[in-house]
């Protein structure tokens, strides 16, 4: 069989006189600006007051409907007036024209999140991170917070770590004369890092306490260091500012274990090298697991610490593991089962029928089994008290009453009569806690918290019969 030979392609063999096809170029600069546009834009720049600015922006868009600056201005005004959905639509149009405008990207993301368009905000944040040159750390923090908002905690952790690497140190200068400089240690890559659409803030809802937010802003300069990427921020660590004291704000030894290990290494270095005192030494916090507190609590006079057994990191069907662990440690129904690293009654369940228990975990989770201690009072309510140790002084905090064994402040406040009863009882407790729980019980609680070895800590407790 004869085969037809293919003719080799040779540009030089083309017929003389043929030309390459050239695509025409749009000459945008050749299109004249609409009459009055320049004057209208100047009026927009000079406008003052929201009503005047709004009128000027609309005037520009009346002349040229695709002006991105006027759209941006209009979107910002819509946000100020609380019209997040309208702002999202307006800013989206502006982004079609300026997709890499970083300030515009951030405004759109915040507007979309506030309007409930969380996935839209997330996708645009992902784009912002990919092109960010002006504020890469801010873009990355926002992306991490949005992943946290939609419940993708593992992905949120990874982006939060990257944000901590990019920009580990921030400062809030004293508004008046600074008399004290504090280095606050924190973590944003330990999970629960969430963007709050309503306030527009990024918060870590678990694993930290709120003491830094209570510090005097007039006379204290507060440096905040995210310790997550401590091995990759040598330049920052070498140039840390001089401070008077280090405050470790990381509180959860399970959720934030690696962050506390990092913080401990840093504190060892700064204390041994410069003698800077540390409040709430990370090493002490690492000792405060539920299991360890239960073991050392056996020696605390007048205080019952429920037996706690750590099942480790487990997933899948865990019914048999729970039953075997409960039997081996003498735990009888009812038993509390809860995920480590959560507060406020989250991810906590009461097991009444151990033999027929069926539980399946969708992802690896650190789990505790905890002895149930009945704290129901004679009025049928479950009262939960909070107290804080500052130095060696114990201070009363809040009081929550619940009709269920697990306290829920939001649910309790929905019951008007219960909310009022809570309010009155809390006033009495805060004025004289010894009158409420007894002088000896208050002293025993204080001694137990002092034994933990932290300078500042809190406890939620109930009164057992």
How would you describe what is shown here?
The chain contains 17 helices and 14 strands. The chain has helices spanning 37-46, 50-63, 68-80, 84-97, 102-114, 118-131, 136-149, 153-166, 234-238, 257-274, 282-286, 290-296, 319-328, 409-414, 416-431, 433-437, 439-452, and strands at residues 169-172, 180-186, 193-196, 201-204, 220-226, 245-248, 278-279, 308-317, 335-339, 348-351, 360-371, 382-390, 393-402, 456-461. The chain is of the alpha+beta class and 465 residues long. It is elongated. 41% of the residues lie in helices and 19% in strands. The strands form 4 sheets. A 5-stranded mixed beta sheet has the order 1-5-2-6-7, covered by helices on one side. Helix 6 packs antiparallel against helix 7. Helix 10 links the parallel strand 6 and strand 7.
Name the features:
single chain; 465 residues; alpha+beta; five-stranded mixed sheet; four-stranded antiparallel sheet; 17 helices
């Amino acid at each position: 069989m004869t085969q037809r030979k293919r003719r080799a392609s040779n540009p030089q063999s083309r017929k003389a006189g043929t030309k390459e096809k050239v695509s025409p170029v749009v000459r945008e600069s050749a299109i004249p600006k609409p009459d009055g546009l320049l004057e209208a834009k100047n009026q927009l720049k000079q406008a003052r007051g929201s009503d005047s600015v709004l009128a000027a922006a609309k005037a520009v868009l009346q002349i040229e409907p695709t002006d991105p600056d006027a759209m941006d201005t209009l979107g910002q005004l819509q946000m100020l007036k609380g019209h997040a959905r309208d702002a999202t639509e307006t800013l989206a149009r502006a982004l079609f024209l300026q997709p890499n405008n970083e300030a515009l990207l951030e405004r759109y993301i915040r507007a979309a999140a506030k309007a409930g368009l969380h996935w839209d905000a997330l996708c645009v944040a992902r784009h912002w991170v990919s092109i960010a040159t002006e504020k890469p750390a801010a873009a990355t923090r926002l992306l991490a917070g949005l992943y946290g908002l939609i419940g993708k905690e593992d992905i949120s952790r990874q982006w939060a770590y990257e944000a901590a690497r990019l920009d580990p140190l921030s400062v809030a200068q004293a508004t008046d004369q600074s008399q004290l400089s504090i280095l606050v240690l924190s973590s944003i890559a330990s999970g629960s890092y969430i963007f709050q659409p309503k306030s527009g803030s990024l918060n870590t809802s678990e694993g930290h306490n709120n003491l830094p937010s209570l510090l005097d802003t007039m006379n204290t300069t507060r440096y905040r260091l995210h310790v997550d990427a401590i091995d990759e921020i040598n330049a920052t660590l070498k140039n840390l500012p001089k401070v008077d004291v280090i405050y470790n704000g990381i509180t959860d030894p399970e959720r934030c274990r690696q962050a506390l290990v990092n913080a401990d290494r840093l504190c060892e270095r700064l204390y041994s090298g410069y003698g800077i005192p540390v409040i709430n030494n990370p090493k002490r916090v690492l000792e405060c697991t539920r299991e360890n507190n239960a073991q050392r609590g056996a020696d605390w006079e007048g205080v019952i610490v429920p037996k706690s057994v750590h099942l480790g990191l487990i997933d899948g069907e865990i019914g048999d593991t729970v039953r075997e662990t409960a039997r081996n440690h003498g735990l009888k129904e009812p038993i509390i089962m809860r995920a480590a690293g959560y507060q406020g009654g989250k991810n906590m369940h009461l097991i009444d029928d151990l033999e027929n228990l069926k539980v399946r975990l969708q992802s690896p989770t650190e789990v505790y089994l905890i002895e149930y201690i009945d704290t129901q009072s004679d009025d049928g309510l479950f009262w939960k008290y909070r107290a804080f140790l500052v130095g060696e002084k114990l201070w009363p905090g809040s009081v929550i009453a619940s009709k269920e064994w697990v306290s829920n402040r939001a649910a309790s406040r929905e019951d008007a009569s219960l909310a009022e009863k809570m309010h009155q009882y809390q006033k009495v407790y805060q004025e004289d806690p010894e009158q409420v729980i007894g002088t000896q019980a208050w002293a025993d609680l204080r001694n137990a918290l002092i034994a933990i070895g932290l300078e500042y800590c809190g406890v939620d407790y109930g009164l057992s019969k």
